[in-house]
Write the structure tokens for this entry.
Amino acid sequence: MAHRAKRSLGQNFLVDANVCRKIVSVLELDESSSVLEIGPGQGALTRHILEASPAAYLALEKDTDLAAELNRRWPEAEIRAADALDFPWEELNDPQLRIAGNLPYNVGSRLIWDIVSRAEQYERAVFMVQLEVAQRLTATYGQSAYGALSIWVQNFARTKLVFKVPPTVFRPQPKVESAIVTFFPLHAALRPKSPSALASVLRLCFQKRRKQLSNILKLYWNNEIDYWLEHSGLSPSARPENVSPTQFAELSMLFSLADGPL
């Protein structure tokens, strides 16, 4: 497909068929699977996905020229000229659904933030992201890459960095490595009771991530926090990167902070 990559859309097209087949294999598709692909671009993954004959397929492509060309190439597939950032993820209700995509670097973290927290019914998601982002998505507490994104995502999904992808398999070639990350949604009972409260606490804590909890939370400190710290095995001198995702969800329920994402 002759199409010049648009920098404004963060386009880097996959051109290596072996890598594409490897990515699609991680989806573990069969004839009962349905697939939602984000940003199919020139159809590098699309071809291999459709060869698996999924029960249903939908693609969201923001580039209208590419969407039109993909529709001409695969008229049997549903390909929408649409921005994934505007998609109603909370309306997904398919336990056989696989979500896949080579996500643009400029919106990848934001998309994942929305998808994992708003979509409850899907089987798995498989995304290509910048390696640095992949490390943040899968980091555990105490690691240098651990931060607000790690905590938020891991409160909604189990994550795994599957394999790295070199710049040489893209056109144009990015200046950084990429990686494939899988996401498996947590059961509704394990998800945060108040996502807005969790987002607010993360924003508060990671604006001052080098400070101690007692300093960051001093305006909200009370006996409940003292009790919670004691029973969580945490010290008031602990820093945000030493608090696990589950502990952050618990901590967020002790506050009544302003709603809103980070």
